[in-house]
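Researcher: Next sequence.
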Amino acid sequence: MPKGKENIGADADVPSKSQRRREALEIKSLAARLIGLRPALLAQVPLDDRVGAAISEAHRIRSHGARKRQLLFVAKLLRNTDPEPIAQALQDLEQAARQSGARQHRAEAWRDCLLAGGDSALGELLHQRHDSDAQLIRQLIRKARQESDRGRPPAAARALFRALREMDEREPLPATPEG
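Model: Next structure:
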């Protein structure tokens, strides 16, 4: 029997070189995502003290080569920890960011619809959302149109946006009548 053939079934638990490389690349990607986070968001991720200190150091480094070495060091530290809670925390942060972005887009769409559509759009909003302050929204629409006509800064349009965003935080706004 040739020399390397007798060990083929014995090491079935050992991952292949390709699998180890894929896992190393995933850990490196996780380290890069962590280094890319702002410190306020990074505080919400469950990290070992050494990993947190290494990431903070990476934020201070400006040299490209040194940053790359620090990234590899962070990845090395992550290999000694369980990456699942960290990956889950990052996924939760990304989900919250997507929801916040969707909330912003819905409020913007309704603001634009109300400013363009007038009473019919307002009627649709009031029909679908009974918790809205109709008088305040009418007043903000009127002021926003006046500001636009006079070429003034859109203070009322911003206030209308904030009111719509607060409504959306309580309960998501429905789709606009335009689409």
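Model: The mean pLDDT is 87. The chain has eight helices and no strands.
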